[in-house]
Each structure stands twice: as structure tokens, then as C-alpha cells.
Amino acid sequence: MGGASIWHWIVVGLIVVLLFGRGKISDLMGDVAKGIKAFKKGMAEDDTAKPVQPSEPVRTIDHQAGATGTQTNATTEHKIG
Asked: CA angle at residue 51 from 46 to 52, to 5 degrees?
């Protein structure tokens, strides 16, 4: 008792077919298959796309005096007095 037997699933399947009809179920499965194919195609296109390069070089500010780097360095001197 309480378990789902094969007869339970047969009755449920028949009720689903009667409510939705065979045509609607097959159309739904076809739409699901098209969606899966479109998803796979989109994922394949993302892998082959080139990464976007910035139009200007990225400039960084180095707040440590005397530090060298490959980018633009800007230091600030604070005078007290």
C-alpha cells in the first residue's frame, strides 16, 4: 500500500492522454527538443566568440612612492606645515 504500481502509472498516463491528446503531447515534446538544440547551439557560439578588447589601455594609479609598473604611475605628495 502507498507504493505506485505499474497499474497506477498506466491509469495516470491514460488520463494525461485523454486530457491533452496525443497531438499536444507530441507538439510539446518537439518544442522541448527544439529548445534543447537552440540552447546547445548558443553555448557552442559562446565558446567560439572572441573576447572584447578595450578601446583604450587601462590606467592604474600606484599610491606607493618609488614603485614601478607597466602602467601609468601617479604619486601624490602631501606637505604638512
From this structure: 125
